[in-house]
Write a structure and sequence with these properties.
By secondary structure, the protein is of the alpha/beta class. The chain has helices at about 15-25, 45-50, 70-80, 100-110, 135-150, 165-170, 185-195, 220-235, 245-260, and strands at about 5-10, 30-35, 60, 85-90, 115-120, 125-130, 160-165, 200-205, 205. The protein contains nine helices and nine strands. InterPro entries: DPM1-like (IPR039528), Glyco_trans_2-like (IPR001173), Nucleotide-diphossugar_trans (IPR029044).
Length: about 260
């Protein structure tokens, strides 16, 4: 029980069974947690129908309504930590992220020293396919804008194809993560960077969805633009380190002190 892939869904009936079956066909010992926001198209029912085929490997959390990407992932992170997973992955359900690239992210964390591995469109070797030029320019502009405001050395800060090691998620105070849209992705990377964790970008090819409807809207864009400014300002007051982590570290320090003084 080492690797958990978290996939938030809302109206993904065309994609959800295929993406689940593709991930399991890779035979890389992933477990999958689907977090569905009460999709009216029956996405959750499709997942439940696969339980018997993937018994003990496929899980579903169903929420009462559309509560946002960020809160879905935070639920998933807590679910993963409580069950002892070491490597926790994020991925979209629409095949814009190629499941075959999951192993690249895993190897970056397992063997190459990364605490956070980001599937990046904007490092050497990365690419975007089937997006209109206006959306590519908007995405690239958002990345440059984020780096200029935050100084965070990540070329694709809005990327949603990520692997976190468990120690990162345990160290971050998830209660302090305030964004729910795609700015959530920026804030999580920012929190990890502020806490001194190593972020490694792995080149991927991002392919626009074939089925279903994009969740991008004006509100998400607005959150991204103004959220980065808010993030920079609030970082002077926020403590992204988990209080639980601090307690554990203090306890470890006290125990070590007792052992040393007892010599």
């Amino acid at each position: 029980m080492e690797k958990l892939l978290i996939i938030p869904t809302y109206n993904e009936k065309e994609n959800v069974a295929s993406v689940i079956e593709t991930v399991f066909s890779l035979q890389q010992n992933f477990h999958i947690l689907i977090i569905d926001d009460n999709s009216p198209d029956g996405t959750g029912a499709i997942v439940r129908g696969l339980f018997s085929k993937y018994n003990g490997k496929l899980f579903l959390e169903e929420r009462e309504g559309k509560l946002g990407l960020g809160t879905a992932y935070i639920l998933g992170f807590r679910w993963a930590i409580s069950r002892g997973y070491q490597y926790i992955f994020e991925m979209d359900c629409d095949f814009s992220h190629d499941p075959h690239d999951l192993d690249k992210l895993y190897k970056a964390c397992k063997y190459d020293g990364a605490d956070v591995a980001v599937g990046s469109r904007y490092v050497k070797g990365g690419n975007v396919k089937n997006w209109p030029s206006i959306r590519v320019n908007l995405s690239k502009g958002a990345s440059i804008y984020t780096r200029l405001i935050t100084f965070m050395p990540v070329k694709d800060p809005t990327a949603g194809f990520v692997c976190y090691t468990s120690n990162v998620l345990e160290a971050i105070n998830l209660d302090e993560i305030s964004f729910v849209g795609y700015a959530f992705q920026i804030e999580m990377k920012f929190a990890a960077w502020k806490l001194g964790f190593i972020i490694k970008e792995v080149p991927i090819t991002f392919i626009d969805r074939k089925y279903g409807i994009s969740k991008m809207n004006k509100g998400i864009v607005k959150e991204g633009i103004f959220g980065v400014l808010k993030l920079k300002w609030m970082s002077m007051f926020k403590n992204y380190r988990s209080r639980v982590k601090n307690i554990n570290e203090n306890s470890a320090y006290q125990n070590e002190k007792v052992l040393v003084e007892g010599k």
